[in-house]
Write a structure and sequence with these properties.
4 strands; 166 residues; alpha+beta
Length: 166
């Protein structure tokens, strides 16, 4: 028994709709997979790590600490002594600059980094604020697990770094 033209048309429409839905789902899956990781994404179903980001504010003392350390490490890494001195003048209080000069003369090392070489990575973590000051911990990574932790304090009003201690 043959199908009526109306039934045949309806069956063809349903088949075409099913094929279109399958194509749309396949495209959505492929697009989603490539947008969330592509070639570098883990293939075992784990989620990809979020892209790194950095933010800050020129008004915040904590942001100033992070900005200073990022720029200072870059300047020292690039062997740009002029830029490093400019950063010290802009971000460090005058008493701290004098204190660092004495420390560096005694230890024959960079007082901001507390080392003779340049770290491979740096991280600044907020600790607390009070009594007109903000406190942060700066972690400098030299190799795999070799790190130095510094305590850094900045004035909330002037946003200048007041002390660096290890």
């Amino acid at each position: 028994m043959s199908k009526s033209p109306a039934k045949a048309k309806r069956t063809a429409s349903l088949a075409l709709a099913a094929a279109a839905a399958t194509a749309a789902l396949t495209l959505a899956f492929v697009t989603s997979a490539s947008a969330t990781g592509g070639a570098g994404a883990p293939q075992d179903g784990r989620a990809s790590a979020a892209a790194p980001s950095v933010s800050g504010s020129p008004e915040g003392a904590f942001s100033r600490i992070a900005t200073f350390y990022g720029a200072y490490v870059d300047a020292v890494y690039d062997n740009d002594g002029t830029r490093a001195k400019q950063l010290r003048a802009a971000y460090l209080s005058a008493p701290l600059q004098r204190e660092l000069a004495t420390w560096e003369e005694t230890h024959h090392a960079d007082g901001v980094l507390r080392a003779q070489n340049v770290p491979l990575e740096w991280k600044v973590a907020y600790v607390d604020s009070g009594m007109g000051k903000t406190n942060a911990t700066v972690t400098l990574t030299w190799s795999g697990t070799d790190t130095t932790r510094l305590r850094v304090q900045a004035d909330l009003k002037t946003r200048k770094i007041l002390s660096i201690t290890d």
